[in-house]
């Protein structure tokens, strides 16, 4: 019976992972976050032990629970491109500096650290598929602060690997554009504040234009959250120590679509669902530049496809949700929120 510590338990991955653990295992979840709105009824589950707190403030609670638990997942991070460009130091301070003591405590107490790396670490790598063992990590110049997130995550990966050489049990996982209900708030109209699927969903709900940055030709391999959680559960379970010292891409190469394709697919689905159809008909697609949308410090990646051979073989895993079903599931999950979102916008 494992004790799993999830820091950032109210986040996108955190709340989906908690739900899966509590529904399918006898493990206990010890979770910290500054809010609990996504957790819903999970907060009252007898094996959910929630603490409202901040990893940068409640350091004694964090260290105590690292000592107490078996598996440590520090999921607290800023992962929105607008913040990389506008507040790069804030990204570094949280994503690297605040997480470093957690890594050191996992080493000190000999725990299994399951750390979220990111597909962003590959940067502008030109490989057809990004391989965790062989692909080069390629970033733009210093005057493009967009890369501070990738750099912070890469440095943490290297520090964790270094601790691994001295005995730390760790697994790094790299999510490739995980999407699903609860990714961000559809009530946030501020440009660049949320991830692309939620951004587009919000525009559709509000009948606003969808902005395609630099034409929307850049491609992403989208992964449905349930598939991602399947792989993550295999890592936490860690049968026979298979995941120790490993790096796993967790993504779906078959769902590789351009952002323009994503916008068109989402509009097509929205027009077929009564709650969304009226506002979807009002949505236009407009092109903008990355400089106008995110700021001058932005650079993008044209293709980002994961090599997942080792993930599939070692974790006995494969992604099964296609793009259409993933998007339909998201629209379905937010159907009851549509009127609230419209009312909210009416008051702005």
TrEMBL record:
Residues 4-251 form the NAD-dependent epimerase/dehydratase domain. Gene3D superfamilies: NAD(P)-binding Rossmann-like Domain. It comes from Polynucleobacter meluiroseus. This is Nucleoside-diphosphate-sugar epimerase. Pfam families: Epimerase. Keywords: NAD. SUPFAM superfamilies: NAD(P)-binding Rossmann-fold domains. GO terms for molecular function: carboxy-lyase activity. InterPro entries: Arna-like_SDR_e (IPR045869), Epimerase_deHydtase (IPR001509), Lipid_A_modif_metabolic_enz (IPR050177), NAD(P)-bd_dom_sf (IPR036291).
């Amino acid at each position: 019976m494992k004790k799993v510590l999830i820091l950032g338990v109210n986040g996108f991955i955190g709340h989906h992972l908690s739900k899966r653990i509590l529904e399918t295992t006898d493990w206990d979840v010890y979770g910290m976050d500054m809010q609990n709105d996504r957790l819903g009824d999970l907060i009252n589950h007898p094996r959910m032990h929630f603490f409202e707190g901040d990893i940068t403030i409640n350091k004694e609670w964090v260290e105590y629970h690292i000592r107490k638990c078996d598996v440590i997942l520090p999921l607290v991070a800023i992962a929105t491109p607008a913040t990389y460009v506008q507040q790069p130091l804030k990204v570094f301070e949280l994503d690297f500096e605040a997480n470093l003591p957690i890594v050191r405590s996992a080493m000190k107490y000999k725990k299994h650290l399951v750390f979220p790396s990111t597909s962003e670490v590959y940067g502008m790598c030109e490989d057809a598929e990004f391989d965790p063992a062989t692909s080069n990590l390629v970033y733009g110049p210093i005057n493009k602060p967009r890369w501070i997130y990738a750099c912070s995550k890469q440095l943490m990966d290297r520090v964790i690997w270094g601790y691994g050489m001295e005995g730390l049990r760790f697994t790094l996982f790299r999510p490739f554009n995980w999407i699903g209900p609860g990714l961000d708030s559809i009530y946030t109209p501020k440009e660049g504040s949320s991830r692309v699927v939620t951004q587009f969903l919000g525009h559709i709900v509000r009948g606003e234009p969808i902005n395609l940055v630099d034409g929307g030709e850049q491609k992403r391999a989208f992964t449905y959250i349930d598939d991602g959680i399947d792989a993550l559960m295999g890592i936490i379970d860690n049968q026979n120590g298979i995941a120790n010292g490993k790096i796993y891409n967790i993504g779906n190469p078959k769902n590789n679509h351009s952002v323009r394709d994503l916008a068109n697919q989402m509009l097509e689905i929205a027009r077929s669902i009564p709650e969304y159809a009226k506002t979807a008909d009002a949505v236009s697609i407009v092109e903008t530049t990355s400089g106008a949308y995110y700021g001058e410090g932005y650079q993008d990646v044209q293709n980002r496809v994961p090599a997942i051979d080792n993930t599939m073989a070692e974790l006995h895993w494969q992604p099964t949700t296609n793009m259409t079903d993933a998007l339909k599931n998201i629209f379905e999950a937010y159907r009851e929120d549509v009127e609230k979102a419209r009312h909210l916008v009416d008051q702005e």
